[in-house]
Structure formats: structure tokens, C-alpha cells
Amino acid sequence: MSDILYLECPCSSFPRSFARDYKETYLYPPPSTIYGFLLSLVGEEDLTAHLGVKLAIGIVGVPLISRILRKQRHHKFSKTHMGTYPPSQFSKPNFQELLTDIKVVIKIDSTKESASVKLDERVAIALATPEQITRFGGLSLGESWALINGIRNYRPEDGEIQWLVKDNRGLIGLPIWIDRQTTQGTFQRFSLSVNQFDENCWTEIQVPIKTKATKFQS
Length: 218
Description:
It comes from Chroogloeocystis siderophila 5.2 s.c.1. The protein is mostly beta strands.
């Protein structure tokens, strides 16, 4: 059995961290998004439950980019509003980029995890016996409306894999971890490698260490 997972998502968006009014999208699913997707798959709500897991991400084919106009909400939690944000004051139309026909492959290495039941084991259980999993909502990649068609093991006939390879001089910058309160986080640069899998394809999911003297990497 292949240890590579394969999923298809008809339409999604991975908004760039610096995007504001015009919601540009990353062209490839970021490690932070894939990690959140796997937690959703196994029904885990604690984002720190599987820190230390290594993920390798690849794509099959090239997703198409389109642009739409949609209403979006803009706000940050504040004590003044206490979670109440009327749409009339905090919503406005903005352009957003979408990706269509997304085909993603994922490899999971849980050898460095400290969890008693590793993430790769929980994913295997979720796929083999989904009735044992307690989760809620549709399974999506990215925003909640971006439901996937399904997830299964990769087959060679699915197509050629282009792996994201860590490359400090690469042109693909993707977030590894994002602090949703500060919108800051850690990033890694990648390049694409066709059917060439090596150790540089692995990205470890870790929370950045906060200190008074240093800030998050960006």
C-alpha cells in the first residue's frame, strides 16, 4: 500500500499572509493548511496535539487561477465589540483569487512526535474505519466552503508528482505556522522537483518560540 495520500479539491483559495483588500492566493497548499486539514480529518481540535510531525507536500498538474468578486468580513477581535461585528459595518466587496482543479499528495512522518497516538496512525484509522472518528463539518482544504472530493492512497496513474522542496533561494514562499491573533508566523521557501523525493521535501510543524528580544520570523 502506498504511503502517499492523494486528494482532489475542485475549488479553494490559500490567501497570502500579506493579502488585504485583494485576496491573492498562494499557488500551492501551504504546510500550515495541510496540517490543519489533517487535524480536521482525524477530528483533532488541539492545534498543538501533533507538533513535531513532518509533512511532505506535492501537487499533480497545475491548478488554474481565476478571480471573483465576493463579500468579505474584515475585523480583529477587540474588547470594544466583544465578538459582535454587524455585517453592515464590517463587510464589503473585494476581489479574491481562486484555484480550481487542485490535486495534492501528502506524506506524513510522525517519528518525532510525542503524542501517544501519532498523526499518521490516526490518519490511517480515519481512512480505514471512519466510523471510529468523531469530527464535525465537511472536510475542506483551506476555507470551510472548499470541500474536497475525497482522499485515498496515491496511484501512479494519478499523474506525475511535483514535490515542494525546501530551498532558501526558491521562489515559492509558504507559511509553516501562523498565529491567528497576530497574523505573524514562520515561513519557508521552496522550489518544485518533479518526481524527485529526498530529505529536503520534509517540513517539520513547530510553533515558533516567542522571546522578548526576538520576533517571529517572517
